[in-house]
C-alpha cells in the first residue's frame, strides 16, 4: 500500500512545504506552517488519471446549422412505419424473433428493394452459404437485385473487406454467429456478442453505414445475449408471429429516431412477406349475427388503431370443484383484477365458474383500454346476453369501479367507423363521433346495468 505523503501548508499565504520550519519561506510569517494529510498517489492512479492526456473534443451547439443524417426508405410501408420513417444513416438496428418467423426473408426483401433503388447493400450471413441465400432470393423473385452477398463469421474479415468501399446498408445474419479474434471464447458467448457488436456499431458511426443485426431469442421470447446489447444499438425491433397463423407483426421496442410501440403487419405468402394495409381485417371474424361473450376492441399500437375481437366463455361448475382461469393474448393478472372488481363492486359471482378469455387471431393485447371490452365479454358470457354485432367497447377500469378515459379515443372511433361499426361503449367525457352512437359510463355498476338491460 502506498505511504501517505506529509506536507505543510502556510495558513497565511497557502504555500506548501514538504518539511516543517519555523518561518514561511514565501511570506516570512512565523509559526504558520501546519501539517495536512496529502492525497495518496499510487503509480496506477498517476498512469490512469483520465483528466489529462486525451484529445480535445469539438463541442457543437444544439441549434447549430449542421446537415442531419438522412433516412433511407425501403419502399415497404409497414417496415418504414416500424422504423419511424426509414433507416438513419450510421445507425445500428437489432431485430429479433423466433426461428422461422421470417427475419431473414424480410431483411432480404428490404435489402433487395434498397439495392434496386441505387444504393449499395451488403448482406453477410453467418448461418447460410451465399448460394443458399441466392436460392431463397430466386424463390422470392429477387434474383436480379444487385445485393452483395458473403458468408463469413470473422468480424475482422468483414470490416477489412468493407473498409475501402463502405455500403449504405450492412445486414449481419446473425450477431450470435460472429467472432472477434480480440476476445477468447466461442461465437455466441456474452463477451463475443458484446465485442463484435461494439466493433460493428463503431464502423457504422464512423463510416455512415446503417447496420442491421439479426439476433436470436430465448425461450421466453426476449433477445438472447447480454442485455447491454439492446442499450448499444439505436433501434430494437421484435418480429412476432406464430406458425399456426399467417400474419407477422414487426414491433418497435426502442427507437432513438422515432416513436416506440409502432407496429408493421405482414402476411406470410408464397412470394415472401406481404404488407397488410388493413390489419383489422386479420383479427376480425365475420360478424353477421350477435354471439354471447364476443365484442370488438379498438387497440392502439403506436399511432395505428387495430380492431381485435375479444372472446369470453364462462362455464358453471358443480359445487366443490376448483374453477379454472385460462387466458390467451392478454395478461392473466389483469383478468383476475377485472373479475375481482366485478364481484366486489357489481355483485356478479364468478367464484363457481370457469373463465376462458381469448383474443381472436392470436393477437396479443397490451393496451390497458381493453379492460371495459373484457368486462363486457365476461358479462355477456355470464348472462348469456349477446352484445350488438356492430358495437365496440374501450376504457380502463379502476379498482374502485370507476371507468377512466383512455388516450386517442377519437382515433379509435374513427377506425371503427371506417369498418362499419355504429355503436360504442366508452368512458364518460369522450367527444361525440359523426357516425357512431356513444353510450358513456362513469362507473362499472351503470355499465353492468346497461349490459343486463336493467335501465
UniProtKB/TrEMBL annotation:
Residues 354-455 are annotated as: Lon-protease-like. InterPro entries: AAA+_ATPase, DNA_repair_RadA, P-loop_NTPase, RecA_ATP-bd, Ribosomal_Su5_D2-typ_SF, Ribsml_uS5_D2-typ_fold_subgr, Rubredoxin_2. One of its GO terms (molecular function) is ATP-dependent DNA damage sensor activity. It comes from the Bacteria. A motif (RadA KNRFG motif) lies at residues 254-258. Belongs to the RecA family. RadA subfamily. This is DNA repair protein RadA. The lineage of its organism: Bacteria, Pseudomonadati, Pseudomonadota, Alphaproteobacteria, Sphingomonadales. The gene is radA.
Amino acid at each position: 500500500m502506498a505511504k501517505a505523503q506529509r506536507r505543510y501548508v502556510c495558513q497565511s499565504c497557502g504555500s506548501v512545504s514538504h518539511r516543517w520550519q519555523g518561518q514561511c519561506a514565501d511570506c516570512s510569517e512565523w509559526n504558520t506552517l501546519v501539517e495536512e494529510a496529502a492525497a495518496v498517489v499510487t503509480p496506477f492512479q498517476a498512469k490512469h488519471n483520465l483528466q489529462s492526456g486525451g484529445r480535445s473534443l469539438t463541442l457543437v451547439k444544439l441549434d447549430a446549422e449542421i446537415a442531419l443524417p438522412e433516412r433511407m426508405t425501403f419502399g415497404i410501408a409497414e417496415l418504414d412505419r416500424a422504423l419511424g420513417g426509414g433507416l438513419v444513416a450510421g445507425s445500428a438496428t437489432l431485430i429479433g424473433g423466433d426461428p422461422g418467423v421470417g427475419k431473414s426473408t424480410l431483411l432480404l426483401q428490404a435489402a433487395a428493394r434498397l439495392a434496386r433503388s441505387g444504393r449499395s447493400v451488403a448482406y453477410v450471413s453467418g448461418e447460410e452459404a451465399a448460394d443458399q441465400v441466392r436460392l431463397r432470393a430466386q424463390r422470392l423473385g429477387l434474383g436480379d437485385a444487385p445485393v452483395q452477398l458473403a458468408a463469413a463469421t470473422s468480424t475482422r474479415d468483414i470490416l477489412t473487406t468493407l473498409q475501402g468501399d463502405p455500403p449504405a446498408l450492412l445486414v449481419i445474419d446473425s450477431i450470435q454467429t460472429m467472432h472477434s479474434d480480440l476476445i477468447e471464447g466461442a461465437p455466441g458467448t456474452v463477451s463475443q456478442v458484446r465485442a463484435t457488436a461494439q466493433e460493428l456499431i463503431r464502423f457504422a458511426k464512423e463510416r455512415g453505414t446503417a447496420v442491421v443485426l439479426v439476433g436470436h431469442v430465448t425461450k421466453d421470447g426476449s433477445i438472447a445475449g447480454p442485455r447491454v446489447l439492446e442499450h448499444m444499438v439505436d433501434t430494437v425491433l421484435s418480429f412476432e408471429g406464430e406458425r399456426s397463423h399467417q400474419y407477422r407483426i414487426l414491433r418497435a421496442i426502442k427507437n432513438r429516431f422515432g416513436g416506440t410501440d409502432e407496429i408493421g403487419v405482414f402476411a406470410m405468402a408464397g412470394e415472401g412477406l406481404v404488407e397488410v394495409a388493413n390489419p383489422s381485417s386479420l383479427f376480425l371474424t365475420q360478424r353477421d349475427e350477435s354471439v354471447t361473450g364476443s365484442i370488438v376492441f379498438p387497440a392502439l399500437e403506436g399511432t395505428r388503431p387495430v380492431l381485435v375481437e375479444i372472446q369470453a366463455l364462462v362455464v358453471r361448475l358443480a359445487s366443490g370443484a376448483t374453477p379454472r382461469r385460462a387466458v390467451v393474448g392478454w395478461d392473466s393478472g389483469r383478468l383476475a383484477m377485472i373479475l375481482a372488481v366485478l364481484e366486489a363492486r357489481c355483485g356478479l359471482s364468478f367464484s363457481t365458474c370457469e373463465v376462458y378469455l381469448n383474443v381472436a387471431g392470436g393477437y396479443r393485447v397490451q393496451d390497458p383500454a381493453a379492460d371495459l371490452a373484457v368486462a363486457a365479454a365476461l358479462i355477456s358470457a355470464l348472462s348469456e346476453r349477446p352484445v350488438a354485432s356492430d358495437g365496440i367497447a374501450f376504457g380502463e377500469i379502476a379498482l374502485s369501479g370507476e371507468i377512466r378515459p383512455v388516450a386517442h379515443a377519437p382515433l379509435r372511433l374513427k377506425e371503427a367507423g371506417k369498418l362499419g361499426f355504429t355503436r360504442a361503449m366508452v368512458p364518460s367525457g369522450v367527444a361525440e363521433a359523426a357516425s357512431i352512437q356513444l353510450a358513456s359510463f362513469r362507473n362499472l355498476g351503470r355499465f353492468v346495468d346497461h349490459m343486463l338491460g336493467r335501465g
